[in-house]
């Protein structure tokens, strides 16, 4: 009996070795279905070959992803189990196009050169803008804006060094440009610009960056571009960026939004940002095989989505009061659907907006005034605050401005020049000379404009002696022409 049992056990072990335990893999993508494999004996090339055969494509055109990682051919003939693949694991198979690879490669190189050239132009333009706004230089004539940073309470943030100011401004401008590219669905170009923006922000002190949420927002936009490009190689980086973004937002806004609520007067901040963050976190968790985290993130995002829904009755009530739909919705979301608090919020926001517009208009007036005074020897604008202080003492504004311009905005040296009769008269002569130069330039421009309309240069010069406005000069020329024609008509009749 012992010999019989021994022979039967050896027989069963031989059968087990001949029939290995097969595991099931759930495949989706280029091929969808279940494949039975031997995890202890199969390799990545064998799995790729099997999936390619079932998908009826070449094996070199298939990429395999499991738990957020691209499966590459292992060294020393590694088996599937060595890659952490287990029974019932999910495998994502993506198809890589191999049509016209030569032409595609050539086009890719050309596109890469073009994109690189375009990025260089964007960087150069942004750096030029940053220098003008950071070092006190005046904007160009076509620039009708001024760049300033504000924290969550709306207070202006003052940066320390010029390098920090330039880095922050450059980052803001690049981020704004990238948002426009995202709206136009140019995700690859937007990703390049966002990377430059991230590099620009890295020039700033970490303590300064903690006060603003621009960097976490930039990280979220980068992850959005990753997913819109549908390139699985960015999956691991997406998880890292989202973790940094959440950390930055919580540090900036406070845990559970406590800090930002205090800064915003008890108003509940908008949840759109957090809903978007959690949706992206859910996508990363799903493709990484973290299904519990995925479910948790989706549940939280769904709850925030419901909080963002504004009741039609409340919206109609606010719009009936004369408020716009957009500001009414935002006010309701910021104040937990409380109509009374929403009305107070809208009134306060409008007052803030009006105050900001007044400040912007005042700044525009200052810029126009600074352009009229000209630049200092080091290409800086005249400091209006110092100018106001000198004018308050009793000096004429144009004289004080010229003194500051000559002395690089040094108030003490400017006062010395203004109180010295010799330098004072020199400043006055310089102002008169500049006024005459501007007058001659304006006259020449009007004459050339009239000549381009077909009038004789001599008549243009005559009218410019009377009026220096182009419309008034044109009116005088037409009157002159009409009077001449009328005189000739009467002369011929006689």
From TrEMBL:
InterPro entries per record: NUB1, UBA, UBA-like_sf, Ubiquitin-like_dom, Ubiquitin-like_domsf
SUPFAM superfamilies named in the record: UBA-like, Ubiquitin-like
Biological processes annotated in GO: regulation of ubiquitin-dependent protein catabolic process
Keywords: Membrane, Transmembrane, Transmembrane helix
Domain Ubiquitin-like: 43-91
GO molecular function: polyubiquitin modification-dependent protein binding
Keyword Phosphoprotein: no
Domain of life: Eukaryota
UniProt KW Membrane keyword: yes
Ranges that cross the membrane: 465-489
Domain annotation UBA: ranges: 309-349, 381-421
Entry protein name: UBA domain-containing protein
Origin species: Aquilegia coerulea (Rocky mountain columbine)
Native organism taxonomy: Eukaryota, Viridiplantae, Streptophyta, Embryophyta, Tracheophyta
């Amino acid at each position: 009996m012992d010999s019989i049992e021994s022979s039967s056990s050896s027989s069963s072990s031989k059968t087990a070795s001949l029939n290995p335990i097969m595991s099931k893999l759930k495949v989706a993508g280029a091929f969808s279905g279940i494949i039975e494999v031997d995890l202890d004996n199969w390799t990545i090339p064998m799995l790729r070959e099997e999936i390619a055969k079932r998908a009826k494509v070449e094996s070199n055109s298939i990429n395999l992803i499991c738990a957020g990682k691209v499966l590459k051919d292992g060294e020393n003939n590694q088996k599937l189990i060595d890659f952490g693949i287990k029974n019932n694991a999910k495998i994502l198979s993506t198809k890589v196009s191999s049509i016209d690879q030569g032409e595609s490669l050539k086009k890719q190189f050309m596109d890469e050169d073009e994109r690189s050239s375009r990025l260089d132009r964007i960087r150069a333009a942004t750096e030029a803008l940053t220098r003008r706004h950071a070092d006190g230089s005046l904007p160009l004539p076509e620039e009708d804006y001024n760049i300033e940073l504000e924290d969550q309470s709306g207070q202006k943030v003052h940066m320390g060094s010029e390098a920090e100011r330039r880095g922050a401004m450059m980052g803001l401008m690049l981020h704004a440009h990238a948002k426009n590219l995202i709206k136009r669905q140019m995700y690859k170009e937007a990703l390049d610009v966002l990377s430059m923006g991230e590099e620009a922000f890295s020039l700033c002190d970490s303590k300064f960056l903690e006060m603003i949420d621009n960097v976490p927002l930039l990280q979220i936009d980068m992850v959005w571009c990753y997913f819109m490009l549908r390139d699985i190689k960015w999956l691991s980086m997406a998880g890292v960026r989202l973790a940094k973004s959440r950390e930055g937002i919580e540090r900036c806004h406070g845990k559970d939004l406590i800090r930002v609520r205090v800064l915003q007067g008890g108003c509940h901040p908008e949840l759109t940002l957090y809903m978007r963050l959690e949706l992206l976190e859910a996508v990363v968790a799903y493709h990484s095989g973290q299904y519990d985290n995925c479910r948790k993130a989706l549940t939280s995002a769904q709850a925030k989505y419901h909080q963002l829904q504004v009741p039609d009755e409340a919206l109609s009530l606010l719009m009936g009061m004369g408020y716009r739909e957009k500001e009414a919705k935002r006010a309701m979301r910021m104040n937990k659907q409380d109509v009374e608090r929403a009305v107070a919020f809208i009134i306060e926001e409008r007052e803030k907006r009006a105050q900001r517009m007044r400040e912007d208009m005042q700044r525009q007036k200052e810029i126009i005034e600074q352009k009229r005074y000209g630049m200092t020897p080091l290409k800086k604008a005249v400091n209006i605050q110092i100018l106001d202080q000198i004018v308050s003492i009793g000096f004429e504004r144009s004289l004080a401005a010229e003194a500051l311009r000559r002395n690089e905005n040094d108030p003490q040296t400017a006062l010395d020049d203004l109180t010295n009769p010799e330098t004072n008269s020199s400043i006055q002569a310089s102002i008169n000379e500049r006024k005459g130069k501007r007058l001659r330039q304006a006259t020449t421009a009007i004459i050339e404009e009239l000549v381009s309309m077909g009038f004789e240069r001599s008549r243009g010069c005559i009218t410019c002696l009377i009026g220096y406005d182009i419309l008034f000069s044109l009116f005088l020329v037409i009157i002159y022409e009409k009077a001449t024609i009328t005189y000739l008509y009467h002369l011929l009749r006689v």
